[in-house]
Structure formats: structure tokens, C-alpha cells
Amino acid sequence: MTIHIINPNSSAHVTAHMAEAIAPIAAMSPVALACHTLSEGPPGIETQAHVDGVVQPLLAFSDTLKDEASAFVVACFSDPGLAAMREAHDVPVLGIAESAYMQAMLMGQRFGILSLGRASIQRHIRYLGALGISDRLAADLPLGLGVLELADEERTLERLSEVGTTLRDRFGADVLITGCAGMAQYRARLENMTGLPVVDPCQAAAAAAIGQVMLSACNNKREKRV
Amino acid sequence: MTIHIINPNSSAHVTAHMAEAIAPIAAMSPVALACHTLSEGPPGIETQAHVDGVVQPLLAFSDTLKDEASAFVVACFSDPGLAAMREAHDVPVLGIAESAYMQAMLMGQRFGILSLGRASIQRHIRYLGALGISDRLAADLPLGLGVLELADEERTLERLSEVGTTLRDRFGADVLITGCAGMAQYRARLENMTGLPVVDPCQAAAAAAIGQVMLSACNNKREKRV
Amino acid sequence: MTIHIINPNSSAHVTAHMAEAIAPIAAMSPVALACHTLSEGPPGIETQAHVDGVVQPLLAFSDTLKDEASAFVVACFSDPGLAAMREAHDVPVLGIAESAYMQAMLMGQRFGILSLGRASIQRHIRYLGALGISDRLAADLPLGLGVLELADEERTLERLSEVGTTLRDRFGADVLITGCAGMAQYRARLENMTGLPVVDPCQAAAAAAIGQVMLSACNNKREKRV
Amino acid sequence: MTIHIINPNSSAHVTAHMAEAIAPIAAMSPVALACHTLSEGPPGIETQAHVDGVVQPLLAFSDTLKDEASAFVVACFSDPGLAAMREAHDVPVLGIAESAYMQAMLMGQRFGILSLGRASIQRHIRYLGALGISDRLAADLPLGLGVLELADEERTLERLSEVGTTLRDRFGADVLITGCAGMAQYRARLENMTGLPVVDPCQAAAAAAIGQVMLSACNNKREKRV
Amino acid sequence: MTIHIINPNSSAHVTAHMAEAIAPIAAMSPVALACHTLSEGPPGIETQAHVDGVVQPLLAFSDTLKDEASAFVVACFSDPGLAAMREAHDVPVLGIAESAYMQAMLMGQRFGILSLGRASIQRHIRYLGALGISDRLAADLPLGLGVLELADEERTLERLSEVGTTLRDRFGADVLITGCAGMAQYRARLENMTGLPVVDPCQAAAAAAIGQVMLSACNNKREKRV
Amino acid sequence: MTIHIINPNSSAHVTAHMAEAIAPIAAMSPVALACHTLSEGPPGIETQAHVDGVVQPLLAFSDTLKDEASAFVVACFSDPGLAAMREAHDVPVLGIAESAYMQAMLMGQRFGILSLGRASIQRHIRYLGALGISDRLAADLPLGLGVLELADEERTLERLSEVGTTLRDRFGADVLITGCAGMAQYRARLENMTGLPVVDPCQAAAAAAIGQVMLSACNNKREKRV
């Protein structure tokens, strides 16, 4: 049995970064982890139409993996289709945003989110409200970077430092979340730049998924939704 | 390295039940789990004085385990000394109540808590507020049972059924939490009686602790508090 | 120009009931209202997969109406695709659930929701959280009726009376919302049975849409999203 | 039948500005809109004593209009006497602040309020709490302008630009509300300066009132308070 | 100097009951307490129009007492004119509802309110929201009694027992508040019937006012509003 | 009978400052106030271990004062052992932080906290959540001063002015709280520098305790916890 981590965008290099980010976790894991690229997805998930548009392909693709799946991870910070995936599958399904929030709540009192652009912040705020954890948010600020600009290390680190410091000093964040699936390579450096723990959503979700699989071992019906 | 699960009360049979409850998890875990009884603790933790009274012994005992610890779990549903333990240790520290809440939030929208007595509910409500997740609570109702009465299976199952059904039907709970460390033996039956998933706090915390250890593998400084 | 009200399920008789429900409003309206059935939709929207599955057809269908649209209304109580519709269109887009909540907030302090089944309540609770108005909810209770059973007047009225009275007397609701697009024919009777004002989501959204069109007249760029 | 919009301060020029602001709405409306000045009111409503002091005259004046009224609008951003007006009248009664908040909630996730002075902000915060929508507020900041200074276009635009930009960039507002009845003439320019939609409370309330009248057509008893 | 407690209704016997209720406090107080009846008030404050209608007379009457006042208490559970009174006076002004809530928050985690009729509950809920303490409310239930019916001891005690027990057992209240100025004579018996502490609003406000006067002694400018 | 104010740290000079701060209150009080130093406490309470570590000594010491106590005040801004003290004693027990928050809520709509260091802010945020009053917090900012540095008047006043002004202007605080037991000597000057009322926690708690004692006079069983 395997934990299937599905990147709902079609960019294989993003999936490759995820695999690299979770390698230390996979190395320890008693259950296999496999990263997949959703070929039907857009190159990047930037709009609400993208978010809603990948749900059906996600359901279809995950259905093909169903028989050998011990858990699924939806690896996009908008957690597209999470509720539908949970409805469709008996095994645990995790979203990287929800997992990152839960992880941050274990590591500090108020988390700060570093989002790529302003557009996604509205979605995050709505989602935090839906999760009933808005009070744990210090602030969610835009880096003002496009997905492609993340390749520019110098510029990215400069913005991460600026925004991370603002989240810490002006908004009182004591833990940070990189609000995007493809920023694991910057996590350690952001921790060093700010002195705060930084949560990478993919790593948080991979670890959480392993925990869910172990809990399922206590009772296979445990994850059954009502 | 080992995940040390410390039962802060001095009742070895409670610790034995915990070990039994987490056995399926331990069997899969890449890291060893060890359950301990805090000999300085009271037979059961029922009052605020008990909660506060075990903090110092917990800190002292955990200090003796420090060098071989990859994580700690405080195994009492009042999460005594959790903040102090996190302050004292660089490795992850989990509380079974916080872990149960996080687990329940992954399994439903509003959780119901089955507490032993009325006295602990005030504490739970304060704690949920401190965690900023009060909106996820459906209700917290007392079973009206003492720790010893949990040995009376018939009476306990009757009350679990009554209270669990009330939480589901009157308060809209879609997931249940047994608000006590020693009720794992009733979990599956409570699920069958109510048709709702039921979270056992010790199992939830053990699984979460393994996830935290794996995350630490991504970055040993990760858990460092600011 | 026209306000296009789209029923995202494929049941024409439901659309016919909507048209009937809003007839008094259409009769007064300075702008035409047209009700449409989304032929690609399922007969009824009951699962999360249904909710997510209608978004793309909704976007496609609304796109064909775009040039002559002064506003859109998504006429399903789960407000499927509302964010994506707003992203796609420059004209106002209303959801019947959001509109019903806003209307209820003008008519009482705490609204009660009468939902068909238990399954949709989780969605409603998440949505109220996303809207930041959870404190205005008295309770959301299931009628335990399927869409087809709504045709059974006697049974439906009996359950509406039971649940409406419970929302008023046990949970303190001072206004009620029928949590489904097809119950307008029961609104007046539910008001008489409970003595509380009752909001029909389709009527609330139609009226709100007319208001939005008039506001747009003050400034055509007004509805432009950022 | 007529929608009566009552400016509770005695400054006829403010009433004239309101009439101008809602002219595009009135031009489309199937029901007449009439703006009135409350002669017993103070020149401007700036203190809590002013707010409370206009309630009785408002009730008395609205009573004289009762027989030909299809709805009332209280046109002061403190919504003076709104609850008493609703208690007194069977027809819909709207306040421009409540209407502006509802409108802003349809146009963005978090609204920013531009208030004239610091003194009114305490009132706004209390009111948002009473409405249960505090989570939708980004921030409420003072322009530091008196009512008379609004006549100084240059100074006013400069402050609107500064405060509007701060609300957008530092506090994450994605929609703005001018927290005063007499600023409609600046709305379009504030939208251009900030790129955010801006809600004028009088326009929002006028449009909402028309919607309420149309809903009343579905059921004359609809607005009856319990 | 004197603490002036003003009953904003015109029923002298209610004022007499207040004086009796606070007698044990007055006997210990270093500063004199005087109870007054607002002759311009209605016999009882039951509607929103009553609430708003007493503000001007309250301000006028309190102004005549100003020179010898060390504090004011507005002795109606709707706290009419509290904000205006605080704006008008430099000395501390207390409302009996706000004081009762604060007192209850010191005595339990979630308070239950026993209101006379359904009508006032909407007001209480709005007020708790304005105070930002809604999370501390267990529930607010109507006794279904008019002010005059409070003279019927048997009937009143029966309802107090029913509602108090419901607040405790169904809604988890651990402290109760009698939501009316004239019920002090029932407080001790309600405590005995429910086993919960019961807050009488007038007693709570009188004690709080004495505390405020003592704080003022530390700094006469202390209470100055900004 | 006496109100015993216990400074849980072992620094007698801090206790001396407290006694000085409450002298004007003690001078008016009908009941004696006595300040005590907890010799078993640390010189200052700066860590969570300190907070938890003083609970047992506090309980033991307060037990020796029990027979002549009319109330207790725990005089540390972390309110260590407050719940345990209330459980242990039948007389009122107040914490200076809770009392300061309640006092600030009477003096403004949103309070700002001036904390010594960043470390204590996490604790304050958790506590405000537990009290259910997070919405009343404007912000909690660190002065960046150690307890000893408070002796440096020039430096302290400079930071108080900077932070107090930021709380007022950027975060909209309309009342301030000095988040430490030993800053009463700066209160008046901070009020003058900011124009905002400033709450000293020890003064607030002393005044509140006197009020509680007077309330107890109405009913000796009043403070009995359930």
C-alpha cells in the first residue's frame, strides 16, 4: 500500500521538488510515498477556475490509484477538491494547506503566511474561516512573485526576508508558512533569516498522512465519513 | 531514539491500557514508543491542583529521558505542563488533548467531547479558547462517571451511547472524542453505537508524534522555539 | 439586459418552481429575470462531487449569456462555483445561500436553517465560517427528507413544523431559512406555523440581484474584482 | 408608495448630496424614493448623544410618513434608532451602515472603513460586533477630517488616498467603505486611486431597500418582526 | 461624594427593591450610594423605544447630580444610554448588564441568562456581540414572565427553577444571571435550586462602581475618555 | 479579615512597589489589604516553568492565610495558579491580568498591552482566548525590556512612549495595559504621553477584590465554585 501525493498542476518539475522535499520523510516511512503529476491540470493553479477545474480530474485519477492507496495527499495550497476526495475515498485524504495550518498550530500561537500573490489571499482567509481557525492567523501577506519568479533565488530570498520579518515584527507571527507547494528549498534559509520555525506544506502533509495511516491501523473503519 | 509517552498519573494499569491502545501504531512505527508512569503523580488527575501539581515532576522525569528522546507525549487529557515541556525540550512535545482536537478536525466539522465529569468541562472550554478552535466544538457533555466506574463496562457503554447520541443528534457532532486517557477499549464500540468516527486521544497523539519525528528529520532545528 | 438565474441541476420542474417563486419580484423588476436549467447538471445536487462537478458547466453556460447579462444568480443552496463565477464575470454574481444569509441577517439576530439531510450541514457550517457569520447561526437541523419527498406535502409540512419550532424554542432562532432551492411553496405556511419570518433563498437572491444591478448603474466599474 | 430616506441631521445640503448620489438608482427604481431632512436633528451627528438624541424625532417623523411608506432608510452611518424603527414599522427599515457592510461583504473578503474621526470608530467596532461580522473587517481608520473639511476636495482626496492605500496594503482590505453619509462624490475617485471597489452607504441602502420592497411583494407579512 | 444609581423606569417600588438588594454593599461602602427613580421613564423598560427614550432624560437627570457624583450606575439590564453617559461624564459610569457579565465571567466559564421575555433576548445577543464576549454565553432563555408577574413568587420560582436547570444541564452554564433589575429577592433561592452561583445585576454594578471610585482615587484623570 | 495580595516572585522590592501602587485604594478600603512576597518564588516570573512552578507554593502559602482571608489576589501578570486557587478557596480569588482586562474593557473598546518581552506574548494571547475576549485586544507588543531595565527610567519611558503610540495609532487601541506587575510608577506618565487611559494590573485587581468582598457580603456562599 502507498500514500499517493498528487500535484494537481501539470508541471513535473514542481512534482520533482515535492519529492525532494519529502525525501527525508519517505526515507523513514514504514509506508511508501509516491508523488504524481496531474497531467490534466494547468501548469500552475493560480485562479479559482483552476482550483475548481482540477477537482474532476483529481477524482478520476485518484480513483485509478484507489486499490493500492493507504492515503491521498492533495498537493496544492488551495486544497482543491479536498471535501470531494474525502467523500469519494475511505482512506485518509489530506490537503497540504490544512496540514500546514495544523502543523503551524503545534509550533506557535499565531502563524504568518507568505503567499505568492494578493489574489490567493482572499481564498486563504475564506478557508481559515471555514476551518474555524482564523484566530490563529497573524497575517497573510503577498510576496508579489509569480510561480516562475521562484526560480530567481536572490529576488525570492530578498522578498521572503522582508515579508517574513514583517510578519514577525509587525503582526506578531511566531511561526511561518510558505503558502505554495514549491518553496521547500527556501524553508531552512527562511528559518535562519527570521529565527522562526517555517512550515513547508508538503512536508507537513506527508508526515500527517503517515500518522493517519498508522491510526487507520487501529481501526480500518476509522476514517469512514458519516 | 524513542518517543516517550508519559502518563502523569501514578496508576500503572492506566499506562498499561495506553500501551495496549497504541500497540497497532507502535507495530508500524519506524521509531520506538515507550509508555511511562509518573510515579510522583496522583492516582488520577481530576482537579486543577492535580493538573498543576504534576508539571514539576513531569519536567524532572522528562529531563532524565532527554538524551534518548525524539519526542514526548503528555498522556493526560488536560495536557498538563505542555507549554512548559515545549519550553524545556528541543524535540517535539505533544499533548493528547491538543492532538485529539487536531485529529477530530481532520475527521469532521464539529466534534463532541464525552467527558467523565462536569468539573473538567470548564477546563476543556478554556483550553479550546486558548487554542482558538472553539468554533469546532459541537458540545462537551459529562458522562457522570468516575475513573473507577470506567471498569463497569455495562454502565459505561450505556452512558457512552446516551451521551454520544445526544452529541450527534442534538448538537450536530459529526466526530466524537473520548475526553480521558483511559477509554480506548470503548472506541470501536462507541463508533458502532453512533455511526460516528471516534478519536482516542492517546492513539491520536502517538500517531502525531511519529509525524513530528519525521518532520524533524527534515530539519533538526525545526522544533526550536523562538 | 437580463438577470440570469441558473439552476445548476438538470431538473426543469425545480427551475419552474423557482420561476414561480420569483414571479412577484419579476413583475416589479425594471430589469428582466430569466430562469435557466443547467442541462449538464445532475438531477439534484446532493454530494460534494455534484457541487464541484457543476462549476465548469456553469462557467461555460454563463459565458454564452455574458453579453446580455446584467447579473447572474447561482440557484443552488451550496452556492457552487460562486467564487469562480465572480472571477469570470464583471457583472454582479449572487449565490442563493449567501443572499439568504444576508437577508436573514436583516430580519433577525440568529437564523435557523432547515436542511434536507444531515450531509449538507457540514457544508453549510464550513460556508458560514468562510463568510465570517457563524455567530449569526442559531442552528442548522436536518429535515431528514430527500428532494423527491418534498412533493409529499403532508409529510413535509409536518417536518417543517417540528424542525422550525425546535429552531425557535430550543435554539432561539428568530428567523428561518429553507436550506434548499425548491421549497418556496412552503414558505408562507412555515411562517404561519412558527410565527417567524422565513427566507426563501431564490427570492432573496433575485431581489438582491436587482439591487446589485441598480448599484452598477451608479458606476459600471463598481463590480470589477481586484 | 415610497421608500423614505431620512437624513437624521438637519443639514439640507447633506440631504441634497444623498439625493444626487442615489439619482441613478432612483431613475431605475419601480418604486419612488424620497429624501428627507430631519429638522430636529443636529447639523451633524458626531457624538453618542447626537446618535441617541435623534431616535425620538426619527420615530415621530417616520410615523407621519407611515401610511405611504413601502420602506424606510435611516441615512446616517451610525444607524441611529434602527432597532426602534424596525420595532415600530411593519415595512422594511434599513440603516446605511448595515447596508454598506452587507454590500461590502458581497464585493470582497475584508472591508476597510474610512471614518472621519477617531471618535466614531469605537461605535463602528461595537456595531460590527453586534452584527457578528467583526471577522470581515480589515481595519477602520480615521481620516482626521471634520464634516466641514469634506468640502476641501484637495485635502480630502489626499487623505482618502493615504488611508485607502494603507487599508489595502497594510491591512489587506479588498473593498472599501466611506464611513459617512456625505462622501458619494469621492467614491469613483477613491476607486481609481486604490483600484478597490468602494461602497457608498447611501447608494448601498437605497438599492437594498428596493430589494426589500420587492421581497415584501412576495408576502406582505414578511417583514413582520416577532 | 456619592455613587448615584439611577433606575431609568418610573416605578419607585423597583427602585426600593434595588436599594434593599444593595443594602449589604452600601453598609460596607466607604462612599455613599443613592438610588434614584427616573420620573420621566416608563413604568417598565420593555421595548427598544423605551430603551432609546430614556437616554435624554437620563443625561438630563444625571447632569443635575454631576457635582456631587463620584460615579453613576444605569440600573436597567438593557444598559440604556451607557455610551452617552460615559461620553457626558468624567466619573465612572457602570451599566448593570455589563457589570453582571463581567462578574459572571469571574465566577464561571459560561453564563446563562434568565430573561423575562423573548423580546429582550435579541437585544442581549447584540450587546454581548458588541462587548466581544459572546463566547462566554451558554444560552439566554426566556422565563415567559412579565414584570408584574414577578410578584407571583410561586410561579416565578417554578420558572426560575425550570429555566435555570435547563441552562445548567442542557447548555452547560456554570453561573447564572437574572436578566432584569428587579429579581434580587430570588437570587439566593435560585442558587439553592440550581447549585450554581447567581449574579444579581444591581449588586454586581454597585460593587463594581465602588471599585471604580477607588481606582479613580489613584488618578482623577483615569476615567477620562479619549 | 484581610485581602491578601501575593506577589509570586521573591523580589521584595517588587512587592514594595505594589504596596505603594495600591496605597490610595487601601486608604479608602473598608477591608484591610496586605501585600506578601512568595519567598519560594523565583526573583522574576519570566518562563512557563516559572509560571507553573509557583502554583504549589502559592497554594501552600495561601492556605496559611486562609482563616483570615476575605479574598486573595495573585499579583503576577501571568495569573499563575488562578484556577487552582479558586478551586482551593471559598473566598474570591483574583488575578491581576484578568482584572486588568476586565478594567480595560470598561474604559475602552480595544486595549493594547505593553509587554516586557516577546516571550510572554504567546501566553497572553492564549489566555485572552481562554477568557473568550480576544476580540477586545488591539495588539500586544513587546517593550524589549527586562525586569531590571525597568529601573532605567529614561529608557523605559522612551519605549513606553514608542510602543504606546504605536498601539494607539497603528492598531487603534483606546486604552492601554502595562503587562507587568511592577510598572505602576509609569502609569500616569504613559497616560500623559499617549492621551489614553492606562490600567495598572495591581490597582485594577485590588479595586476588583474589594468589590468582590462586598458582593460576598450579600451572600457568603456566593463565591462557592460548582
UniProtKB/TrEMBL annotation, chains A, B, C, D, E, F:
The cross-references to InterPro entries, in alphabetical order and at most eight, read: Asp/Glu/hydantoin_racemase (IPR015942), Hydantoin_racemase-like (IPR052186), Iso_Racemase_Enz_sf (IPR053714)
Q: Which GO terms describe its molecular function?
A: amino-acid racemase activity
Q: Which residues form the signal peptide?
A: none
Domain of life, source organism = Bacteria
The similarity comment for this entry is: Belongs to the HyuE racemase family.
Read off the PANTHER family from this record: PROTEIN DCG1
Tell me the protein's name: Hydantoin racemase
Per the UniProt entry, what species is this protein from, by scientific name? Roseibium aggregatum
